[in-house]
Structure formats: C-alpha cells, structure tokens
Design brief:
411 residues; mainly alpha; Growth Hormone, Chain: A; globular
Length: 411
C-alpha cells in the first residue's frame, strides 16, 4: 500500500499559505458550481427548450478553450497570484450580471445569461493554472503528494456541496439569492488570494507569445511521463464516463425519481473525497506509475460492473468505487505534473492539462450519448468501460517510463 515519504515535519495543513490556497479553491469551486446549476434552471424557466440547456456548456467551453493556452502564458510571464485574483473578481462580476437578469427588464435576458457564461469561461481558464502554479510555491516538493490528496478532496467536496447549495438556494430562497451568494463566494476567493503572502520567482524570460506557447506544447508532448498521465486520464473519462447517462439509468433501469439521480451523481465524489483524505495521510511513492495504471483500470471495471447491475444501491456502491479509483488517478496525475514541471512552465503545462481534461468531459458526454443511440444504453456503457481497459493497456505499452515510475525519480 501507499507509503509516506515526506521528510518534512510540517503537514501541509499546518502551512498557512497552503490553507489560504485551499480556501481560495473551495470558494471559487462553490461559486462556479452554484452558477452552473442555477443558470440551467434559470435558462429552462425562460425558454423551456432542452437545446438551450445544451448551449450553456458550449457558451462556456468555446471561450475557455480559446483562452486556456494564453492564460498559461500570462501566468508564467506575470504574477500568478494576481491572475487568480482577477479570475475571482471576474467570476463575481459575472454572478452580479446574472443577479441583474433576475429582476431587470431586459430585451433578451437569455443572451445576457449566455454572455455572462462566456465571460465565466474566460475566468475559468485562469483558475487552474493559477492554483497549480501557486501550489508549487506554497509547499516544499516532498509535500506535493500529501497536498495533492488534500486538494483533490477539497475540489470534490466543492463538486458535491456546490450543486446541492445552488439547488437549495433556488428552492428555499430565489434565483437572485443564489446568484448573490455565488458573487460573494467568488469575491471572497479573490480577497483570500490577494491576502496570500508568497514569494513568487522571477517570471519566465520574455519571448513571443506563440513561441512560448509552442515551447509549452513541445515540453508536454516530448515528456513521456506527463503526456502519458494526461492522455490516460483524458481517454479514460472520454470513454468510461457514465455520468452523462445517469438520468436514463435512473428512469429506465432502476425506476427511481430525481432523488435517485442525486444519490448516483454524488456517489463518485464521495469515493473521491474518501481516497483523497486517505492519500493525504498515506501518499504513494513507490510504483506510482503502476498505481496510476491500476486505478484507471479499476475505474473501467467499475463502470462495466455498474452497467450490468440491476440493483440501485449496488450501482451506487460501484460508482463510489469508481470515484475512489478516479481519485487515485487525479492525485497521482496532479503530483506527477507538479514534480515533473519546471517552475517557469507551470502555467502553460497546467493550461494544457486543463484542455486535456476539459475536452474529455465535454466530448465524453457526447460520446456516451452517441454510443447509447447506436448500441443501446447498457451496451454503450459496457463498451466505454472496455475501451478504458484498452487505453490502459496501450498506455502501459507505449509509455514504459510512466509504467515504471517511482515518484522519488522526479525529486
């Protein structure tokens, strides 16, 4: 099992800079998760059109992908902290615009909402590179693995609490109140990061923007360990994600109502939080590459078993186990990326990683829907889990350095 390899006497949670960074992360995640849930309800109230719901994701993803590489460049060449603060302020302003759409008389409030979501996509492009760059500055290298487990748990907690809080605010208060809470959380995140006292290294040497972005891309695609870890995660989510199909499983297979959907949606995050807490106390060092490959393979097996299950609570348990496997994968990938990336390239590498993961989530939902249409619901999910196992086998063969990796090789 995982072994502790930290020689530092101070746990990451006793590090004031890291605690502030975690506070920033949970607040900003809660803010945009509340917006994501509430804006869907708001749009459907205005349009009663399922296509309008689909356009929400498109409105955010296009500007996110368009800005991600440039965000990484900016963070590597300027203050990492200030761009994180800027992202929080922009998210807060977007939420305030959404507050306005709930009570102001606007000619076309839907366009205002989509415009705000697009600006939110721009802000989101800066959040992950800022966090990852500051993560490396706030901690000594021998604490990265522990801290990655803590950070993963905090992120997953936000994914669980944010949607629940957003739904509760809409149900028990109003759309206006939900957006206002999101605005306060985002501004609080910005102020938290503004108060962070951390010594930033000199920015990367100035170079033409496209040349610098190309340098980041060459680094990732030329590094077998980083590329293998990112590609493994991307294709596992692309093929193995069953989340997009959960409403169909709840209605057609398990015959539950909306509460069943809520339980199944929360189950993977609960598993990820549990393993994140465990790995924060028992970080993996030896055979890290094998653990990563085994975790993704375990994820694929859980998805196949979920598709074949006819019992609701067994399905929930299997999804929780898939979350445990995915949590190991996330912590390992985060740790590998932090240890293997030079300080001067952290923003660019994090932005490229964000594109890998973001594209897999969006395209994975499309792949799941298309496969379900062509094969049927259950066979499509079995196919996706099986493809995840194929991806693991291919990665183990094509990336031997990743397969043989021990984390101490990267110190």
């Amino acid at each position: 099992m995982p072994q502790s390899f930290s020689s530092s006497p101070m746990h990451p949670l006793r590090n004031p800079a890291f605690l502030k960074l975690l506070a920033f992360r949970i607040q900003i995640v809660l803010a945009y998760q509340i917006i994501a849930v509430v804006v869907g309800w708001h749009i459907y109230e205005l349009t009663h059109d399922a296509l309008a719901l689909g356009l929400i994701g498109l409105a955010e993803v296009i500007p996110y992908f368009s800005c991600a590489l440039f965000a990484g460049y900016a963070i590597d060449h300027h203050s990492r902290r200030k761009f994180g603060v800027l992202a929080g302020v922009l998210t807060s302003l977007n939420a305030l615009v959404l507050v306005g759409t709930t009570f102001m008389t606007l000619k076309d409030p839907v366009l205002w909402i989509y415009g705000s979501i697009a600006c939110g996509g721009v802000a989101r492009a800066f959040i992950s590179p800022s966090y990852n760059s500051l993560f490396a500055l706030a901690l000594p290298r021998d604490q990265y693995a522990r801290a990655a487990g803590v950070g993963s748990s905090i992120f997953q907690l936000g994914l669980v609490v944010g949607p629940a809080l957003g739904g509760a605010l809409v149900a028990w208060a109003s759309l206006t109140s939900a957006y206002a809470v999101s605005a306060v959380l985002a501004m609080s995140a910005a102020l938290t990061l503004l108060s962070l006292r951390i010594k930033e290294p000199p920015p990367a040497e100035a170079s033409p923007i496209f040349s610098s972005i190309g340098e980041g891309l060459r680094f990732v695609f030329g590094n077998q360990i980083i590329l293998g870890a990112q590609a493994l995660d991307m294709f596992a989510v692309l093929f193995g994600g069953a989340v997009a199909m959960l409403p169909a499983f709840v209605q057609e297979i398990f015959h539950y109502g909306p509460e069943g959907l809520g339980i199944l949606r929360a189950a993977p995050a609960v598993g990820a939080i549990m393993i994140g807490i465990f790995l924060a106390r028992h970080p993996i060092n030896k055979h890290a590459g094998r653990w990563l490959l085994a975790a993704v393979a375990g994820f694929g097996v859980c998805i196949i078993a979920f598709a074949m299950s006819n019992y609701f609570w067994l399905a929930a348990l299997l999804l929780m186990l898939s979350g445990i496997c995915d949590g190991v994968s996330v912590v390992m990938r985060t740790t590998i990326m932090q240890l293997a990336t030079p300080d001067t390239m952290r923003g660019r590498v994090a932005s490229i990683n964000g594109i890998f993961i973001g594209s897999s989530n969006e395209l994975g939902a499309f792949e799941s829907g298309l496969a379900a249409r062509l094969m049927g619901l259950v066979p499509s999910v079995i196919f996706g889990g099986s493809m995840t196992l194929v991806v693991v086998s291919a990665t183990a063969f094509l990336a031997p350095r990743l397969r043989k990796l021990d984390l101490h090789h990267l110190h």
